[in-house]
Amino acid sequence: MAEITRTHDFEPFQDLRGKAGSFKYQLEEMGALNVDMLNLIQNELKGSHGKIIEEIRNTLENNYKDKKRIINDQISMMDILAGRYSTHINDMNTQDITIYYEKIKTATT
Q: Is this structure's pTM higher than 0.85?
């Protein structure tokens, strides 16, 4: 028995990594708003001094750094997951096909 194995693409390869763009845009907007909030509060506290004010400044700076790190991590994760998504979808659009057949001898006249 003979066989032929082929790979059939139901759809052409698609680069779907661009789908992460809208998520990354929203994350970048959140980062910009985080900076705006930091600047606004720092400007309000500019003329103030004292132990409580210093504690507020430290907490504010720590929160800003944490949020910035989280947003950057999420943006990086979006790039990674978009690549995986693209690969997964393209794998689903491809099928290996094996055809088994018998050769029939024909009589020559």
A: no
Cβ-Cβ contacts under 8 Å for 81 (sequence gap 6 or more): 20
Residues 6+ apart with CB under 8 A from 27: 71, 74, 75, 78
The token duo for 82 is 């978009």
Chain centre to alpha carbon of residue 92: 19
pLDDT, one tens digit for every residue, the chain (109 residues): 888 999 888 888 888 888 889 999 999 999 999 999 999 999 999 989 999 999 999 999 999 999 999 999 999 999 999 999 999 988 888 999 999 988 888 877 6
